[in-house]
Amino acid sequence: MLDGRHTPQNVTIYSFFLGTVFSASVFVGWYSKTFSQLGIFLAALSLFHELEYLFTALFNANILSLDSFLINNGQQYHIAHAAAIIEFLIEAYLFPNHKNIKLFYYIGFLAIVVGQIARSCAMWHAKHNFTHMIQYQKRKDHVLVTTGIYAYLRHPSYFGFYYWAAGTQILLCNPICLIGFLVAMHKFFSDRIREEELLLIKFFGNEYLEYQKKAFIWIPLINNLTH
């Protein structure tokens, strides 16, 4: 077990771990006055990873693996979330009153919910066309999805993660990590979207160029990047 293979035992362990974290975090978020935001953050984080695997299993079983949980999402990903937890704990100790701003709490929570819904809808509507990795070759069954949430957003999964991640830092009232997250996500998504758009134009030609005129990205400073 835990040898990196995609076995029922390992999937069960991953899901049990995420479920345990989610349940404990909801309890903390509901009952703790000091660590309420931290509980909601960890609950949102564990739910995000579980849903990534679930939707991949539903629509892309042929490429399903333990990596579909996105838990092993790179060192920088883990450093970012560790930094968020550390900043919250330090600032909660030094400036407890600054961690209890209800406006930020509600804005952050709303952004997390909207972001997660957008991300999940992207995977639901794209179905087998959705993958976590950039596809450099057009598959025979790859079609351009322009219905559902894709009728309004060109890259709803990126839109969803952007606002989900930003929302977690607003919820935690983490000014340092919020700035760091926004800078890092802008760099990552601007590069990735530019690369994907060029590939999609190559795959679908005028069909995608027309689609660009109807659906937008809606991520700050990236909206008109590829026009």
TrEMBL record:
Subcellular location: Endoplasmic reticulum membrane; Membrane
Cited InterPro entries: ICMT_MeTrfase (IPR007269), PPMT_MeTrfase (IPR025770)
Catalytic activity: [protein]-C-terminal S-[(2E,6E)-farnesyl]-L-cysteine + S-adenosyl-L-methionine = [protein]-C-terminal S-[(2E,6E)-farnesyl]-L-cysteine methyl ester + S-adenosyl-L-homocysteine
EC number(s) from the headed UniProt entry: 2.1.1.100
GO molecular function (one): protein C-terminal S-isoprenylcysteine carboxyl O-methyltransferase activity
GO biological process, alphabetically ordered: methylation
Record carries keyword Glycoprotein: no
Gene Ontology cellular-component terms listed: endoplasmic reticulum membrane
Topology within the bilayer: Multi-pass membrane protein
Main location: endoplasmic reticulum
Main enzyme class: transferase
Stretches that traverse the bilayer: 12-31, 38-59, 79-96, 103-126, 161-184
Keywords: Endoplasmic reticulum, Membrane, Methyltransferase, S-adenosyl-L-methionine, Transferase, Transmembrane, Transmembrane helix
UniProt family annotation: Belongs to the class VI-like SAM-binding methyltransferase superfamily. Isoprenylcysteine carboxyl methyltransferase family.
The protein, known as: Protein-S-isoprenylcysteine O-methyltransferase
